């Protein structure tokens, strides 16, 4: 049975009672008496000792360890915490006079002060424009414990400015395509979950769980699924999701599906998020496998709910979150069925939905291989 740790008040009461029982005839010590003060001080020290023993107990097992002790338990299974990933972009447009040059490492500032640097020297041609690649500058972890990778994600059309003016080059720079591959340092809870999976799933030289573990070890990847023979005999499909604070893409990876750039095979090579994962899996996969890393396809589901047409914004927001929760838990690109009963239960648990009727969908929802359900519009009638 669990040990009931005494509270500070209980320890003080026990000490005072012990003092009274040992010193016959002195009565209850006064509040500011030496005996009372000594009893309270001793109780405080005992309370700290109990706290330290609690901390030791938590660090003694992998499922409750924290900080460096968690990292130590994880290292036994060769699991390391995912570092922040810097966002990159290879379609940043520079303008200026023909012959203008932007040196490699030139610093660019976003409006909020976030910085990027050019990956290589960029020469402006006769058209007065040039396209180059930039990479986000990750902040010092001591200044930003998240690692600041996700903060570097930037929508297309955002304008940056040169940190130092360059002769013949305009100070304003435009990002043509969104920067979406930045990721923060892995949270401790996510790190612990991956570590426990490593303890539970002994490597099998390339089974389903191995591919998923290899994908999840890549910065930014939060979910992964394996589909055997996705593209025929000898192939393995790995679907990934990049769930983060940037909800504009619903967590779907940004890039193109395919195999690793390191693979010596005439097939479509993956790019973007899929490319990062494919390249990370390649050195670990069995030599006979041809691994395709893919993004799931959005299976958009629209909902119609009647009976609560007067629901306020708080209720409708909670209903949307409840639906998202069911789709998140039940969705699987391996092909699955979302039970209508699960949706009904989730919606009914939201305050203010008494008497609702889910008009559409009216039956269980089946998704095909490669599809992941996403909430579309929710209409109230």
From TrEMBL:
Domain of life assignment: Bacteria
The Baseplate J-like central domain, residue ranges: 203-295
Baseplate J-like C-terminal domain span: 302-381
Boundaries of every Baseplate protein J-like barrel domain copy: 93-182
Matches recorded under InterPro entries: Barrel_Baseplate_J-like, Baseplate_J-like_C, Baseplate_J_M, Phage_Baseplate_Assmbl_Protein
Pfam family membership, one: Baseplate_J_C
PANTHER family: PHAGE-LIKE ELEMENT PBSX PROTEIN XKDT, PROTEIN JAYE-RELATED
Family named by the database record: Belongs to the Mu gp47/PBSX XkdT family.
Record protein name field: Phage baseplate protein
């Amino acid at each position: 049975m669990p040990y009931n740790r005494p509270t500070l008040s209980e320890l003080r009461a026990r000490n005072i009672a012990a003092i009274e029982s040992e010193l016959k005839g002195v009565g209850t010590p006064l509040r500011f008496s030496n005996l009372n003060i000594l009893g309270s001080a001793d109780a405080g020290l005992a309370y700290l000792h109990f706290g330290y023993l609690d901390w030791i107990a938590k660090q003694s097992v992998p499922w409750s360890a924290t900080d460096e002790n968690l990292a130590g338990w994880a290292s036994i299974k060769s699991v390391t915490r995912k570092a922040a990933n810097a966002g990159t972009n290879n379609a940043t447009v520079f303008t200026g006079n023909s012959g203008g040059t932007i040196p490699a490492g030139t610093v660019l500032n976003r409006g909020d002060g976030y910085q990027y640097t050019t990956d290589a020297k960029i020469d402006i041609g006769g058209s007065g424009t040039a396209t180059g690649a930039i990479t986000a500058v990750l902040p010092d972890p001591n200044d930003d414990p998240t690692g600041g990778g996700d903060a570097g994600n930037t929508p297309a059309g955002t304008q940056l400015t040169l940190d130092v003016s360059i002769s013949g080059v305009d100070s304003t720079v435009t990002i043509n395509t969104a920067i979406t591959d930045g990721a923060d340092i892995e949270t401790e809870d996510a790190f612990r979950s991956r570590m426990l999976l490593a303890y539970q799933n002994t490597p099998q030289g390339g089974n389903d769980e191995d591919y998923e573990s290899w994908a999840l070890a890549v910065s930014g990847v939060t979910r992964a699924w394996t589909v055997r023979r996705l593209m025929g005999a000898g192939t393995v499909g790995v679907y990934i999701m990049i769930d983060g604070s940037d909800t504009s893409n619903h967590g779907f990876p940004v890039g193109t599906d395919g195999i690793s750039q390191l693979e010596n095979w005439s097939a479509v090579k993956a790019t973007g998020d899929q490319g990062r994962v494919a390249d990370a899996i390649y050195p670990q996969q069995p030599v006979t496998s041809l691994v395709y890393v893919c993004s799931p396809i959005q299976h958009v589901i629209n909902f119609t709910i009647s009976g609560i047409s007067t629901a306020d914004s708080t209720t409708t927001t909670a209903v949307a979150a409840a639906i998202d929760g069911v789709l998140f838990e039940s969705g699987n690109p391996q092909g699955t069925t979302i039970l209508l009963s699960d949706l009904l239960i989730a919606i009914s648990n939201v305050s203010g939905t008494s008497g609702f009727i889910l008009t559409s969908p009216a039956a269980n929802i089946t998704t095909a291989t490669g599809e992941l359900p996403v909430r579309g519009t929710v209409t109230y009638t």
